[in-house]
Design brief:
The complex is a heterodimer of chains A (319) and B (429). Chain A is mainly α and 319 residues long. Chain A contains 10 helices and no strands. By secondary structure, chain B is α+β, with helices and mostly antiparallel strands. Chain B has one domain: Cytochrome-c3 Hydrogenase, chain B (Orthogonal Bundle), CATH 1.10.645.10. In chain B, the strands form 4 sheets. Chain B has a 3-stranded antiparallel sheet. A 3-stranded antiparallel sheet of chain B has the order 6-7-8. A two-stranded antiparallel ribbon of chain B has the order 4-5. Classes of the chains: A mainly alpha (319), B alpha+beta (429). Chain B: Keywords: Iron, Magnesium, Metal-binding, Nickel, Oxidoreductase.
Amino acid sequence: MIWELLALLGIYAYVSIASLLYAGIDRKLVARMQRRIGPPILQPFYDFLKLASKETIVPNTANFMFKASPILMLATTIALLAYTPIGFKPLFATKGDIIVFIYLLTLADFFLVLGAISSGNPYAKVGASREIALLASREPAMMLGVFTVMWALSKHGVEKPFSLANLYEHNIWEFGPMAWVGGAVLIYVFMTWLASEVEAGFFNVPEAEQEIAEGPLVEYSGRYLAIIKLAESLKEFIAASLVVAILFPWGIEMPGLEGYVVNLLIHTAKVFAVLFVAKTVFRAVTGRLRVTEAVNLLWTRVFSASLVASLIIAMGVVM
Amino acid sequence: MKKVEYWVKIPFGPIHPGLEEPEKFILTLDGESIVNVDVKLGYNLRGIQWIAMRRNYVQIMYLAERICGICSFSHNHTYVRAVEEMAGIEVPERAEYIRVIIGELERIHSHLLNLGVIGHDIGYDTVLHLTWLAREKVMDVLEAISGNRVNYSMITIGGVRRDINEKRKRLILEMIEYYKKIMPQIEDIFLHDSTIEARLRDVATAPKKLALEMGAVGPTGRGSGIKEDARWSEGLGVYPDLGVKPILPQDVTGEKARGDVYDRVAVRIGELWQSLELIERALDQMPEGKIKTFPKDNVLLAKLKVMADGEGIGRYEAPRGELVHYVRGQKGKDGPLRWKMREPTFPNLFTIAKALEGNQLADVVVAIASIDPCLSCTDRVAVVKDGKRTILTEKDLLKLSIEKTREINPNIRGDPTPAGLGCLRGGLL
């Protein structure tokens, strides 16, 4: 138990640094794509430290949840790290940890929304309603994709299929040509879901600085804003980790502590690559959709693709 | 089941990250749909006309130029035309051609700036950087010609201050070649990119009827299908010889005008192409000769003291739309008695406010950006009296105007209320 808590603390520290580092890399890459110099790569660290030392202003119209939400969001995100595959099986892997993972991922967003509507600012309320609309639209496609993979694993004899730990022993690509086709479709599904999760490109709808002044974050400042920004960075890494674990789980067989370190680094590289496609490139080459169009896209294309992938994989299993 | 309507009012501005200048829109929303838009102005009063009443004709040129950082030439030019009309001053033909060149260079950089802002407002920052990078070239040329990127001070009453020699001519021609290379890319992005098309089509649609009712001008009016351009309808200077004409959306897209943001963007792209043509023709047709009627400003001022008497109106198609300046002078004075401007943003703002009804909240910023508003040019008088602040309405202004007239000439008969205007008019007749 003590060992696991210490490990969680270490993972939290590592993922914080890695995710903020990627945020810096992301800004630099997008700036270069736009033929600008861009900020230094360590800028997100400077931003975090500066925000942490700045004044925190609480609106008169805010209630207690305004202050509680950032902390709850970060706490949920840290708890989520215990169930996140990061090159090796999750710390708290059990027979149903994917369910807990999805639940906690949604809960973190939920706390952000609670904080937004507690601020009393009309822009925050609009941002909160947009966040909920997108959340309700992207999760079904992701869940259908994940459960299809888990179901396929169970049909091929894997015990405790609803555990993320299995993905490092068996994965969707082992099950023949039909699974390859379904997996290819799932790549589209998960990448679009990830773009929506990190609010890149088309899906930069809840914050939408030019429209609603950063929406849910409009009233946050100082320490609370720093906490939310950190939690959002962590959540990006965690969401990308899910995509990597399901679609690109391969690592290196190596014993002992060295094995964990090497696989963690390999996983981080894969997460960066996945985020590069789903976030960096996507937001550099597209603009933002309206909330109605984003919701429509998630249902008519992404959910449909998820459904198609499920049917293809199911046919592969049945045949 | 009857639908329960729950409307919420959102103050959009005066300080908002999506707005470049202080203005306020009270949005009434039903969910994300806009039920009503109220426009409130008066946050950017700078007292320019008040300052002008303490300056002479030459000094006011520099003041006019600083009304706006983007259409600085347009304001200066329109003011100067008003003074020239009042004083009956002829402008050398070469100077007219140089004015066309500078005016079109300004239109190019203004339109590129606005296209970038529209891209930014839909979250497409890459096109912002693309167009603003392209804009650097024309600003370099303006700097080479006038010594300044923004406030060129090129124009003077009776002509222009600097000539365009062979070296500068070559620079301009190189710039034209550069833009002919990159314009297809810019046009392709703004007219055919699926994201931009999804965001700009059918947004803030102002049908021709609405645009006419509201008096929309410039790309906003032409985007709705109104065939109007002050350079063309006024027969301004040498513009008729260069073949200027109003650019309508169908000239660019081939489709009938709908009056949405997409059509306004299309008009601007068409005008960019036309500006390049006009500059090329102006350079080609420009005759030799003097560039100004009065070589020195002190001579100019002395002449104006004698010649400036009566009224003058200048009309010009600024990048945002028709710009009108009015001056009134009196013999023996070295500055005008009155100087007034009518800017294109004022009617365009109310057009867009009406057109936004039925749209979504996400469309507000890009719709406002599509009329290329300039509050520096537009803002009206706000009166602060006994600590209370009121915005003058049309009735208030009319009443004040009548009272002012009565002050000037106590013998005028008639009722000083707005209803009495007819009597006043009858009396004048």
